[in-house]
Amino acid sequence: MNGKISQAMLLALSSVVVAVAVLALKGVAWWLTGSVALMADAMESIVNVAAAVAALAAVAYSSLPADANHPYGHAKAEYFSAVLEGALIIVAALLILHQAWGALASPHAPEQAKLGLGVSVLASGVNALWAMHLMRRGRALRSPALIADARHLWSDVVTSVGVVVGVGLVALTGILWLDPLLAALTAVNILFSGFRLLRESFGGLMDEAVPSQTLDRIRAIVANEAEGALEAHDLRSRHAGRYTFLEFHLVVPGAMTVRESHDICDRVEAALKAELRDAIITIHVEPEGKAKQKGVPVL
After folding, report:
1. What is the pLDDT of residue 296?
2. Where exactly are the transmembrane stretches of this chain (predicted)?
3. 227: region left, alpha or beta (phi > 0 left; psi from -120 to 50 alpha)
4. DSSP letter string over 79-117?
5. For residue 77, pLDDT beyond 80
6. Fewer C-beta neighbours within 10 Å, C or N terminus of the chain?
């Protein structure tokens, strides 16, 4: 197991521990107050635990080496975890909306509001610190599962802050219907978060190309490093977890030897891999008669 994979596994396992701890704290806050809004916040933490477990399983599976049935490796498993997390978020939001609708009919004042809100603030603080660390490390390791988990936690932090403020207002003003209303607004925020995560995860499963800025940088590197070649065309790219797959055709003079064209390919690959970590590159060499006059001209 290489260093990046072991780091991702440790982060995913730590996420499970943090999620369970935060769930316990939010459960205590709900138990102390009886607030529907804090109940909604705790229910989202149940999703956090399930999502963290799914992320751990996905990171573990994606670390498996390539085999006969999966010659490109198992990195896409992380996108399935992100899709599952998005679906769980949506289910949690719908359950919270159901509870909030019922509570609107018979709202009640939160009990032990100060103590319950203090516990909730502590849980939110833990979530915020872990979300920042997880996002930073997830981006460094290029792990879709860890990044998805971090984004969900950020959504949870924002939601929790709103809930704490709202429940505090209920305790101060005595306007009881604010509590279920805040629970409903929490659910709507969670719902949008789930749909956004699903859209991004499906993009990875559908082999979306790298961003246009990255593609421009790739073209510039090929143009600058492929000295001796004539043109590069049919450039294609896709992401699969932490890997970036690139392939293109490189047109060389017809009289160029195999060794010379191979040296150009090696030079281009080295430059691209210096720019894109974990890049897997395929270059198809063609004679000058195959030039399309619409690819990347080589400088």
Report:
1. 60
2. 45-67, 79-101, 113-132, 153-175, 181-198
3. beta
4. HHHHHHHHHHHHHHHHHHHHHHHHHHHS--PPSSHHHHH
5. no
6. C
Burial of 271 (0-12, 13-18, 19+ CB in 10 A): middle
- Looking up residue 265, the CATH number of its domain turns out to be 3.30.70.1350
- DSSP letter (8 states) at residue 76: T
Do 190 and 236 fall within a single domain? no
**Judgement on whether residues 290 and 251 belong to the same structural domain of the protein:** yes
288 and 146 assigned to the same domain: no
Contacts of 65 (CB under 8 A, 6+ apart): 73
Phi and psi at 148, nearest 5°, equal -60, -40
d(C-alpha 296, C-alpha 291), whole Å:
10
pLDDT band at 139 (very low <50, low <70, confident <90, very high): confident
Q: Is this prediction's pTM over 0.70? A: no
Q: How many domains does the chain have?
A: 2
Give the residue numbers spanning the domain of 236.
212-297
Q: How many residues does the chain have?
A: 299
Same domain, 195 and 225: no
pLDDT tens digits, residue range 100-116? 776 676 666 667 778 88
pLDDT in tens, 9-45: 888 888 899 989 999 998 898 888 887 778 777 877 8
The arrangement of strands across the sheet holding 231-240 comes to 279-287, 243-252, 231-240, 296-297
Bridge partners of residue 297, in order along the sequence: 231
Are residue 189 and residue 216 in the same domain, yes or no? no
Q: Are 51 and 149 in contact (CB under 8 A)?
A: yes
What pLDDT score was predicted for residue 285?
92
Q: What is the pLDDT of residues 168-190, one digit of tens each?
A: 777 777 777 777 777 777 778 77
